[in-house]
Automatic annotation (TrEMBL), chain A:
Pfam families: Pyr_redox_2. This is NAD(P)/FAD-dependent oxidoreductase. InterPro entries: BFD-like_2Fe2S-bd_dom_sf (IPR041854), FAD/NAD-bd_sf (IPR036188), FAD/NAD-binding_dom (IPR023753), Metab_Enz_Cyan_OpOx_G3PDH (IPR051691), Opine_Oxase_asu/HCN_bsu (IPR017224). Keywords: Oxidoreductase. PANTHER family: ANAEROBIC GLYCEROL-3-PHOSPHATE DEHYDROGENASE SUBUNIT B (PTHR42949:SF3). Residues 8-183 form the FAD/NAD(P)-binding domain. GO terms for molecular function: oxidoreductase activity. It comes from Azospirillum lipoferum. It comes from the Bacteria.
UniProtKB/TrEMBL annotation, chain B:
Keywords: Oxidoreductase. GO terms for molecular function: iron-sulfur cluster binding; oxidoreductase activity. The keyword Oxidoreductase applies. This is (2Fe-2S)-binding protein. It comes from Azospirillum lipoferum. Transmembrane segments: none annotated. InterPro entries: 2Fe-2S-bd_N, 2Fe-2S_ferredoxin-like_sf. Pfam families: Fer2_4.
């Protein structure tokens, strides 16, 4: 029998949730292993540029610079004191029977694990648009990463489209850095945004900061638009066609497009770990089930945007809570969690308000022209998914098996929500959740045969 | 603008880094130390690769290792994910598969 403080605890992800979880475990003498895909801890939101870059945190993270620096400093301190084991530039691609399979530059390795904290974060939530496979179309998150971690804009004249807080934030950051933004196109209408305001007011400074940024965008910002298509030549995007709130057709010339509708939880490892899932109507996606601390199974804990899409502040809180649950289950001393639980409630109310203010564009997806590429990996069209749902059955995994939507290299990360909407609409199902949930399959990232052979 | 002719990306900051030389489709190109392969190529060219399942070129999409849109070939064989691989002196990168490969 292993002594509790000798337990092998592994944390996957070194963003705000993973860092706070590691810190909480290390505080009572555990020495967790933190596996992360990034070269340096911080996650996507507090991502750090490579060595040799010189912009200060205030430029990189704006009003959140203090939080970013605090997290980076805490993590680097734990690593240099030898209180945690950090495995950067490694992807966990599979897990079973208490063993994780991680792949990195040196090949693959197996890591034994008594308890597992998954802090895998989120990706952009994407809705297909006619022409979005053209070169020069990126996720909003991609454009933010490019600016933060590389100091580049993805084009000379950029259209940002979609919905959610990142739309306004990214437009502001890019303009401040000197990029040209041609238009900011929000599929959320003003009425829904205003209706959500009571929930957003639980974090007044955040809400006001967002409104002020929006105001400074002035006439670049358009609410309640509908995206009609992206035009391109061989070398890239040339324009976005859209309908304004009054129904007038518009076209905006550009050489790059950023698309995104808020976030989609990264849940593949939670799925492989055996967690249960439920469809969440507010966030319009399947999310893993856990108790208020993040317990999601025998020895499995979830924290951060991979569990509930609360953003970076919520991820820090959830990371501490998941670690506290782990400590409690090990019979080790547990920090007082009452204040964090209360904080999490308030952050969830705000986040659900945001999700309602800037909803998933189900109508846009359900009315996509048949020739729209739905799956960017393999060029599967909306029409093909509709046909497959008719002859193969209105269920996500069947449509994947028979029609390949979700079978490509991204494993459905960027098409499965839209595919579910198309399946539901084709079969006359009321909700996208009725089309079932695409099951995760290992490896959850593509792995070269060489990487597997180079391992143990 | 000669150094960025044909490139998609615009450098807005951090331009004081040391240069890195690499080959792109056999032509010598320059990037900056700390660039990803994706940044290095797209400051010199509009796209990264030909799509396998459609007529279009691709230029990456998520930049966080999730979409797998930016896998490209190297002359010596192995592929790499351009958004998560730092560029290095002497890399020999391809935006298309070599024609002499079977």
């Amino acid at each position: 029998m292993t002594e509790p403080n000798q337990s092998r605890v592994v944390i996957v992800g070194a963003g705000p949730a993973g860092i706070r979880a590691a810190e909480t475990l290390a505080a009572v003498g555990l020495r967790p292993t933190v596996i992360d895909e990034g070269a340096r801890a911080g996650g996507q939101i507090y991502r750090r540029p490579p060595d040799g870059f010189t912009r200060p945190p205030s430029t990189l993270y704006g009003s959140q610079a203090g939080k970013a620096v605090a997290l980076h400093t805490a993590f680097d301190g734990l690593v240099s004191a030898g209180r945690i084991v950090h495995l950067p530039r490694h992807s966990v691609v599979a897990l079973a029977d208490g063993t994780l399979h991680a792949v990195g530059d040196g090949g693959s390795r197996r890591i034994g694990c008594d308890r597992l904290i998954l802090a895998t974060g989120a990706t952009d939530r994407l809705a297909p648009v006619l022409g979005w496979q053209a070169p020069g179309v990126y996720s909003l998150g991609a454009m933010q990463i490019a600016l933060k971690a590389q100091g580049v804009a993805m084009g000379r004249r950029i259209v940002l489209a979609g919905s959610g807080p990142l739309l306004t934030l990214l437009a502001t950051q890019l303009r401040k850095a000197g990029a040209e933004i041609a238009a900011v196109l929000d599929t959320a209408g003003m009425r829904g945004q205003i209706a959500a305001f009571p929930d957003l007011a639980v974090r007044p400074s955040f809400a006001l900061h967002g409104l002020a940024m929006r105001a400074r965008l002035g006439r670049l910002y358009h609410a309640g638009i509908a995206l009609e298509g992206i035009e391109a030549t061989d070398t890239g995007v040339t324009a976005v066609r859209w309908k304004d709130a009054a129904g007038r057709m518009r076209s905006t010339a550009c050489d790059a497009v950023g698309l995104g509708w808020h976030l989609k939880a990264e849940t593949q490892l939670a799925d492989l770990a055996g967690c249960r899932f439920a469809y969440d109507e507010t966030w319009a996606q399947w999310l893993p089930c856990a108790d208020c601390m993040g317990r999601a199974g025998d020895g499995v804990y979830l924290a951060g945007d991979g569990l509930r899409l609360l953003g970076a502040d919520g991820a820090e809180v959830a990371g501490r809570l998941a670690a506290a649950a782990c400590l409690s289950d090990l019979g080790l001393p547990v920090p007082d969690v009452a204040a964090d639980l209360k904080r999490l409630d308030r952050l969830e109310r705000f986040a659900r308000g945001i999700a309602r203010a800037f909803p998933w564009p189900a109508d846009q997806v359900r009315t996509l022209p048949d020739d729209t590429v739905l799956c960017r990996c393999e060029g599967i069209t909306a029409g093909a998914v509709r046909e497959t749902a008719v002859y193969g059955g209105a269920e996500a995994n069947r449509v994947k098996s028979l029609g390949r939507a979700g079978m490509g290299r991204c494993q459905g990360r960027y098409c499965q929500l839209a595919a579910a909407d198309l399946i539901a609409a084709t079969a006359g199902l009321a909700h996208a959740g009725d089309a079932g949930r695409l099951r995760a399959q290992a490896p959850v990232r593509p792995v070269t045969i060489a990487a597997l052979l180079e391992g143990e | 603008m000669s150094g960025t002719a044909g490139g998609r990306l615009v450098r807005l900051a951090e331009t004081g880094r040391a240069p890195v030389r690499f080959l792109l489709d056999g032509m010598e190109r320059t990037a900056l130390s700390g660039d990803t392969v994706l940044t290095a190529i797209l400051t010199n060219a509009p796209t990264l690769r030909q799509a396998e399942f459609g007529p279009e070129q691709r230029a990456g999409f998520c930049l966080m290792g999730a979409c797998q849109d930016c896998w490209i070939w190297q002359e010596q064989g192995p592929r790499l994910r351009a958004c998560s691989t730092p560029v290095a002196d002497g890399m020999r990168l391809l935006t298309r598969t070599r024609e002499d490969w079977p």
